[in-house]
């Protein structure tokens, strides 16, 4: 019976192509507006590492001065100091741990045709790559021993590796950067999680491009590589990088990975004990709460999805609702002129349920057509949005989830809009219609 109703629906749509096109276009515009906005919101707010996001944690301490502090005041700092980062690394808590700060590194190629060029990257520990599942094209991460010794080793992005060596595997080669010789131990595949949840503070931004190189945290410190990104100092640190490292300036992001989400409480107890020990040494005198955030909590804390993005999504769905109201009006007009057809079908034995199914299938066909057109319009809208900036270009793309959602939303919206017109069509009295003919 469904195929029969589908044939009837298609024939009916062809009878008045102008009205059908207007309904499809109205629905498509509403779907495109809502889907394009929701797609960006979906990319921004989605869990970037769902299978372990509840096992990755960011610790935060309040190391500000006691003067002028009000108990319960929210911590503005979203990073930790160098002394705390070193102590947490030595504490060996969790399965893995890493400290992260941004660096800029000029590279001096051996090739005559390439001049010195600037790159941006991160200083971190070897655990970083396994924690955040960075995919390797060649080689692997450096070892724990190289972390401990501050070895001059580097992992390059594929983009930088190809710029320097073409398609060749560069693992084992040496590259001159930061005025030193660094041995290449690995090359990553293109990798830029959206958002950059592992480094939301400073750097390339929440939705920026991929990091170009990675060196050991200890190597960056040994080579006196200045940090790039946000830094917050409550007082004047001593001179040079050494002064910053000895101060309570916050400029390092830190992550723990635990074996299970249930280990969170034990990790929190460790942080509380650590803070208590530091207070005995004269630090952390505010005795504020020591915070611990998992991935999704960290994204919420840093407002990865702003209120303006949420408002845009609500406005887009409001526009879709307005389009549905217009579609309801068009369907009422279309079905009202077919009262005689309904009367004849009812007189020939068709039940109200049959009429209801026929007209509902017809509205579903309108929805499917609107979904196809809406998808094309949504993709065009995302292309235009992507042209606005590099960050928007990284988030304005449709995945298969949103692709399926587009058609589901379109058909659902059309069926919803068709309920009232279809119910009205079922109320036709056969005798009255036949008498009027």
TrEMBL record:
It is found in: Cell membrane. It is a multi-pass membrane protein. It holds the Pfam family FtsX. Residues 20-272 form the MacB-like periplasmic core domain. One of its GO terms (cellular component) is plasma membrane. GO terms for molecular function: transmembrane transporter activity. Residues 315-429 form the ABC3 transporter permease C-terminal domain. This is ABC transporter permease. The chain crosses the membrane at residues 313-337, 358-388, 400-423. Keywords: Cell membrane, Membrane, Transmembrane, Transmembrane helix. It comes from Massilia eurypsychrophila. PANTHER family: ABC-TYPE MACROLIDE FAMILY EXPORT SYSTEM PERMEASE COMPONENT 2 (PTHR30572:SF18), MEMBRANE COMPONENT OF TRANSPORTER-RELATED (PTHR30572). The keyword Membrane applies. InterPro entries: ABC3_permease_C, MacB_PCD, Macrolide_Exporter_MacB. Its main location: membrane. It comes from the Bacteria.
């Amino acid at each position: 019976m469904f195929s029969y109703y589908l044939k009837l629906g298609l024939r009916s749509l062809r009878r008045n192509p102008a009205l059908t096109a207007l309904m499809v276009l109205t629905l498509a515009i509403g779907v495109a507006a809502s889907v394009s906005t929701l797609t960006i919101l979906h990319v921004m707010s989605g869990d970037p590492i769902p299978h372990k996001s509840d096992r990755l944690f960011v610790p935060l301490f309040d190391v500000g001065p006691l003067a002028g502090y009000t108990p319960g005041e929210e911590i503005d700092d979203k990073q930790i100091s160098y002394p705390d980062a070193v102590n947490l690394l030595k504490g060996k808590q969790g399965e893995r741990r890493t400290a992260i700060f941004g660096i800029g590194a000029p590279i001096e190629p051996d090739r005559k045709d390439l001049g010195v060029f600037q790159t941006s990257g991160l200083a971190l520990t070897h655990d970083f790559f396994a924690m955040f599942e960075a995919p390797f094209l060649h080689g692997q991460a450096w070892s724990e021993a190289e972390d401990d010794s501050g070895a001059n080793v580097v992992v390059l992005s594929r983009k930088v590796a190809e710029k320097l060596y073409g398609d060749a595997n560069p693992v084992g080669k040496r590259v001159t950067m930061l005025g030193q010789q660094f041995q290449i131990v690995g090359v990553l595949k293109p990798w830029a999680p959206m958002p950059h949840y592992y480094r939301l503070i400073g750097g390339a931004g929440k939705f920026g491009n991929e990091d170009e190189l990675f060196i050991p945290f200890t190597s960056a410190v040994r080579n006196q590589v200045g940090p790039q990104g946000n830094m917050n100092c409550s007082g004047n640190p001593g001179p040079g990088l050494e002064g910053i490292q000895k101060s309570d300036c916050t400029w390092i992001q830190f992550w723990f990975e635990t074996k299970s989400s249930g280990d969170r409480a034990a990790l929190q107890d460790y942080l509380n004990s650590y803070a208590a020990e530091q207070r005995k040494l004269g630090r952390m005198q505010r005795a504020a709460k020591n915070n611990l955030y998992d991935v999704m909590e960290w994204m919420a804390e840093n407002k990865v999805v702003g209120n303006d993005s949420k408002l845009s999504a609500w406005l887009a769905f409001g526009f879709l609702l307005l389009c549905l109201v217009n579609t309801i009006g068009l369907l009422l007009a279309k079905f009202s002129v077919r009262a005689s057809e309904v009367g004849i079908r009812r007189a020939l034995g068709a039940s109200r349920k049959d009429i209801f199914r026929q007209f509902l299938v017809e509205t579903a066909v309108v929805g499917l057509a609107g979904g196809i057109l809406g998808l094309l319009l949504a993709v065009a809208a995302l292309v235009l949005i992507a042209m606005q900036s590099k960050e928007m270009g990284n988030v304005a793309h449709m995945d298969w989830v949103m692709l399926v959602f587009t058609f589901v939303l379109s058909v659902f919206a059309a069926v919803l809009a068709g309920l009232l017109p279809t119910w009205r069509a079922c109320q036709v009295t056969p005798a009255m219609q036949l008498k009027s003919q």
